[in-house]
Every structure is written in structure tokens, then in C-alpha cells.
Amino acid sequence: MNPQYQDIAAAFVQSYYLHFDDNEKRQTMASFYDEETSLMSFEGQNLLGRKKIMEKLSSLTFQKIAHSITKVDCQPMFDGGVLVCVLGQLKTDEDPPHTFSQTFVLKPYNEGFYVQHDVFRIAVHDAL
Amino acid sequence: MNPQYQDIAAAFVQSYYLHFDDNEKRQTMASFYDEETSLMSFEGQNLLGRKKIMEKLSSLTFQKIAHSITKVDCQPMFDGGVLVCVLGQLKTDEDPPHTFSQTFVLKPYNEGFYVQHDVFRIAVHDAL
């Protein structure tokens, strides 16, 4: 298990949302994902591989987005990867903030990591 | 990758919360976890191994708890495991419902699975 998992998770989260929240940088996020094996679930839609994932990220229709991170939990995995669970709020354009959760599995690759699994959900419930 | 991953995730989620929401059954949840290697993050507190995890679950002070599951996202993992991300609401005693998210990594073991990673968070934010 990688003893640096907390630093790896913190650096990843900072870089990921910095890219996501900048309309130009978001177009360069392909390098976070593997060409063939990365899996994303985006609001229940499943996307496999870098190309499909980037098509999804490029198709999002907001003009502005801002993620505010509330908590980052991370755990070392037995293959040297890192499990990263993010809880936060996001604001798109002039909409009210929504709670979101996003889970990443980072997989070692060369000297760095790529996103093997990415699960994103906005918290919208039927009323209890 | 396990082609049954969706069925595995659905059966796991149903069984897990059925046990959790029953004060007697919750005491029998040790079999979900590995004695030495299971990792839990519970509201930021890290617990390693079945004994520590069960001590935590046994120390919870509510009289009644009910989870309501909004969404379950799952992905097959490359070692035959399953990533399971749960979004829902929970009610303890007479408190108002809170959004929670919980991520599991299920690892194959004999004919079944155990929980290798478990990350639980209630969504409480500072106001944006």
C-alpha cells in the first residue's frame, strides 16, 4: 500500500477540480483518464474510456461551475491505488448550490496515477 | 471483470442496510468485514479490521435508524471486485433526515464478497 496516499489524494482533488472549474482547462482533462479502461458513472450514465468521458465533459451546458469541497476521505488500496471520496457542493451559473458526492479510484501508472473509476452524483432526493 | 456486478451490488446494498437498520442484526455485521484488512472511514474516523469496525458500529447511540436509498451506482473492478456508491438519506430517532453518501469496495472471497473499503459521510456543509 502506498504510504503517501493522503498526499496523493489531496493533490489529485486540488488538480481535478481546478481543471473542471475552468472551461478551457476542462477540455484538457483527457490525461486524467485511460484511453480504454477508465470507467465513469455520471448521474447514472456509464461511460467507458477517455474518448467517451471527454465527450461527456465537453457536452455539459453550464457557462460557469464552481465546486466547493467539504470533505475528502481517502484510503490506500492493496494494489498501490488510492480510493478518494469527495463530498461537497457545486454551483452552476446562477442556480442554488447542490450537494454532490464523487468517488475516484486512482490507479498507479508510470510515476503517477490515472482515474480508473469515477462516480459522480448530485444529491437530489424524493422527500422523506 | 465480474459480469454479475450489478446483481452483486444490489444484493449487497439490500443486505447491508437491512442489517444496519435493525439493532439486533447490526451486531452480526462482522461477517461483512475481513478480520485484518477491511478499512472503514466513518465520518472521518479511520478503523482497520473487523474488531475495530464492529466496536464503532456497536457504539452508535441512536435508538432507531432508517436508511432510504436514493441511488446506487456500481462499477466492475479489474480484480473481480465491485465498486458500490450509495446516495441516500438517513433518519435517526426523531431527527430530521440527512443526506449521506457511502462508498464500498467489495472484494471476492471464496464464493462471496467482503467489504474491503467502506467510506461513510453525512452531508453537512458550511453554507455556500
Automatic annotation (TrEMBL), chains A, B:
Pfam families membership: NTF2
UniProt keyword list: Cytoplasm, Nucleus, Protein transport, Transport
Principal cellular location given in the protein's record: cytoplasm
Name the UniProt record assigns to this protein: Nuclear transport factor 2
Purpose of the protein: Has a role in nuclear-cytoplasmic transport of proteins and mRNAs.
Subcellular location: Cytoplasm; Nucleus
SUPFAM superfamilies cross-referenced by the UniProt entry: NTF2-like (SSF54427)
Gene symbol of the encoding locus: LOC106459755
Gene3D superfamilies, sorted: 3.10.450.50
